[in-house]
Amino acid sequence: MPYKSRIKTLEESHRLVENQLFQLEKSNGDPEKIKKLRETKEKYFSELRLMNRAQWDHDHERVDLDDDR
Question: Which helix (H) or strand (E) holds 59?
Fold first, then answer.
């Protein structure tokens, strides 16, 4: 639960940068700006992967071995 809000923020940021990048590439925009947007998109994606992994680890850190012996 602690990572979910950050994951949502990163997903939204990644999506927005992706849309900006698509529009710039479609209109043959400034190559320097395109390069920076690609770097930003990659940074968001990398952090998103880390947060998803951290959330998964958090969700699965406890194993309930409810043994009724």
Answer: helix 31-59
- Entry pTM: 0.75
Backbone torsions φ then ψ of 65, nearest 5 degrees? -100, 70
- Residues 25 and 34 sit within 8 Å (Cβ to Cβ): yes
The C-alpha atoms of residue 2 and residue 59 are separated, in whole angstroms, by 10
What is the Cα 18 distance to its own chain's centre? Answer: 12
DSSP state of 44: H
d(CA 48, CA 5): 11
Name the packing angle between helices 4-26 and 31-59 (round to 10°).
160
Q: What percent of the chain has pLDDT over 90?
A: 61
Is-contact 21 37, C-beta < 8 A? yes
